[in-house]
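Here is one chain, start to finish.
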Amino acid sequence: MTSKPAHLAPEYADQFKDESVVAAYHTRPPYPESVFDILESLAPDLAGPLLDLGCGTGEIAIPMSRRLWRVVAVDASLPMLQMAKSRGGQEADSIEWVNLPAEEFAYPETYGVVVAAASLH
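Its structure:
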């Protein structure tokens, strides 16, 4: 197994804990509605919750919580999770928010769909 490229070292991930990055995150282009349609179609029988790895401020987790019965959202940045919870309204209350890097998440159950959106870095 090869190691991560140097430019994707932990210092790269740490920038997403910076309050100014979190505050500006909403300026990213939104996902088109078709993304959510496709994700929902991948789990038609709701075999398990949607797992959103590197969920950031909830751009996938929050809309999917309106469509699926359960969402687990994992992110290493507590400020990102706090922003997601504050912008998610009632939907945010139904999401299980986990403050861990994906590499440390224990995967305690089976998931119907796993998403890593823009967090594959």
